[in-house]
Amino acid sequence: RSERADSALFTCVATNAFGSDDTSINLIIQEVPETPYELKVLEKAGRNIKLSWQAPYNGNSNLTRYLIEFKPTKGTWQNDIDRVLVSGDESIAGVFSLRPATSYHFRIVAQNEIGSSGPSDTITVE
Questions:
Q1: CA triple 69-105-110, angle to 5 deg
Q2: Sign of CA dihedral 94, 82, 84, 106
């Protein structure tokens, strides 16, 4: 099993009576991204909200997208979840057409070509 710390430059040297030769290979371990952090509300206006977050370690694979996941606070993540897809190079996005007079939970997940991070800490927006 490989680990992140196994990423390194490896050199193979072959030597015989006629001389020696070497070749190097750069091993880069790729993994799912870490969890985005510092999810917060930048603006709340009517039925719309603007969120920001900090990009996590990408697992040595470019982030392809984020999923902003949200649900009414009285709902469950299994049955009542909605998602907004955001480009992997963004760290600010809006969620629109929320229901009036409804409190929501929001969290965010990062994705790269290897897979998905765990969800961020949940924030509540009244």
A1: 30
A2: positive
Q: Which two tokens stand for residue 3?
A: 């680990």
Q: Reduced to 3 states, what is the DSSP secondary structure of residue 113?
A: coil
Measured between alpha carbons, how far is 116 from 99 in angstroms, rounded to an integer?
28
CA geometry: angle 53, 56, 59, nearest 5 deg? 155
Beta-carbon contacts of residue 107 (< 8 Å; ≥ 6 apart): 39, 68, 69, 70, 119, 120, 121, 122, 123
d(Cα 86, Cα 3) in Å, to the nearest integer?
29
Look-up: residue for tokens 């001389």?
19
Instruction: Give per-residue pLDDT as tens, 62-94.
Output: 999 999 999 999 999 999 999 999 999 999 999
